[in-house]
Design brief:
The chain is about 75% helix and about 0% strand. The protein is mainly alpha-helical. The chain has one domain: Up-down Bundle (AhpD-like). The protein is globular.
Length: about 180
């Protein structure tokens, strides 16, 4: 399946999501690796089977095996980190935020691709998972690494649109049950 086929599955009431996916697939602000790694990490995070399959089918044609693995790793590690750091940030007892996490996160230090790309994918996943602390942290790294605000926004737009597509298709499936 391709992104175009995915877009065709999105109902008319969500036409904006369908159009955004098409526009973002042609996004030129990001490198191809940054763009398709963001798409893949976002799809894996959003969790809808149809969205994941369509995006993975297309992204895996455009990413090196190392980049595909790193995008998957970004979704995985941030799935853990976003829960942990969001919780410590939201808890009224701020002592938890000062405690070491004691969670393995070695992939962040050695992702197997350009660190800025991995951090960008982590930023997109953090947006979907709603972790403000992680968003701030990853945004600082990618900006320090040379990415522009427009590039950060492009990754956020991809994450938002992929997540919305997943929500629409999940809702449609629930209505069919």
């Amino acid at each position: 399946m391709s992104i175009d086929e995915l877009r065709n599955k999105i109902p008319d009431y969500a036409k904006d999501i369908r159009l955004n996916l098409g526009t973002l697939a042609s996004e030129t602000t990001l490198t191809e690796q940054q763009k398709w790694g963001t798409f893949l990490a976002a799809a894996l995070t959003a969790g809808n089977r149809t969205v994941t399959k369509a995006i993975a089918d297309e992204a895996l044609l455009k990413l090196s095996p190392e980049a595909a693995t790193a995008a998957k790793a970004a979704a995985a590690i941030m799935g853990m980190n976003n829960v942990y750091y969001r919780a410590t940030h939201l808890m009224s007892d701020k002592n938890y935020a000062t405690m070491p996490a004691k969670l393995r996160m070695n992939i962040i230090a050695n992702p197997g691709v350009d660190k800025v790309d991995f951090e960008l994918w982590s930023l997109a996943v953090s947006a979907i998972n709603g972790c403000g602390m992680c968003l701030d942290s990853h945004e600082k790294v990618v900006r320090k690494g040379g990415l522009s605000a427009d590039q950060v926004q492009a990754a956020l737009r991809i994450a938002a649109s992929v997540n919305a597509a997943a929500a629409v298709l999940d809702s449609e499936a629930a209505l069919q049950d």
